[in-house]
Design goal:
alpha/beta, two-stranded antiparallel ribbon, 51% helix
Length: 328
Amino acid sequence: MRQAGRYMSEYRALRERYSLLDLCRTPDLATEVTLQPIRRIEVDAAILFSDLLLPLEPMGIRFDFIRGEGPAIEDPLRTEADLERVRRFEPREHLRYVLDAIRQIKRELGGRVPLIGFAGAPFTLASYAIEGGHSNAFAYTKALMYGWPSAWHRFCDTIADVISEYLVAQIEAGVDAVQVFDSWVGALNAADYREFILPHTKKIFDRVHAHAANAGGDGVPTIHFGVGTGSILGDLRDAGGDVIGADWRTPLDEAWQRIGAERAVQGNLDPTLLLGPLDRVFAATDDVLARAGGRPGHVFNLGHGILPTTPVEHVQALARYVHQKTRS
């Protein structure tokens, strides 16, 4: 999940001087932020510092980040005509700064740990573009989805084309795994997910795997993550991903059963536990590990990103504890 962020003093120091978009668009800064957690926490991989909304602007959807409020879309898409105006683009040209950052990060890592790249999935990107920012009900998004299904599918097909090519470009630049974030797709029931989202997300994973096949190799591992997806974990599996993320709402063993033993799983400690005492953190960690049962294919992780008020010492202690419990 997110490793860098406001819980780290060195990140906050950079944010006093630079905007979030400055950090994302400047390879030197993106490299520094990516490496900050690696220097302080015993994590087993680095996660590219970027933002899943970056592809929106080249698609013609302008946005900015409002301090204390999050992302804000300049002109949210609210009509069928708005959806039709969205354009495809070449990520290697318009998001070159991300690819330059990946190459620089890989040099700096020097093989110490692998690097995970990522991108946003169709529903999550669409919901930001339509709602104008984060939403609880996703009313505008669902109204367009239900009211103009043909335009919706064309819009999501555009997103899928862009994101699949963006992930392939990240792989070409050197990432060792890619994660597709559909953070808000838990707002959909299973029937709506299968009708309106699954074909487009599947297209992304299929294209990433086809790229590997065309290159004559096995490719890089792919991770598929959503929040509040306990009821659609099997559908997420069908959409694609070698690893399926599970948040903390579903016990890990139950989630793995719904996903299927043939897939790896990622998760699933509640990130708010890190705000409490360490004995409770460790007890909950023991429960996650017990439910994994030592089976291969479990990536221990939080169920979502680290919260800004989390003590960095708790994150460090958690990583050490997991290694102590799992290394033979």
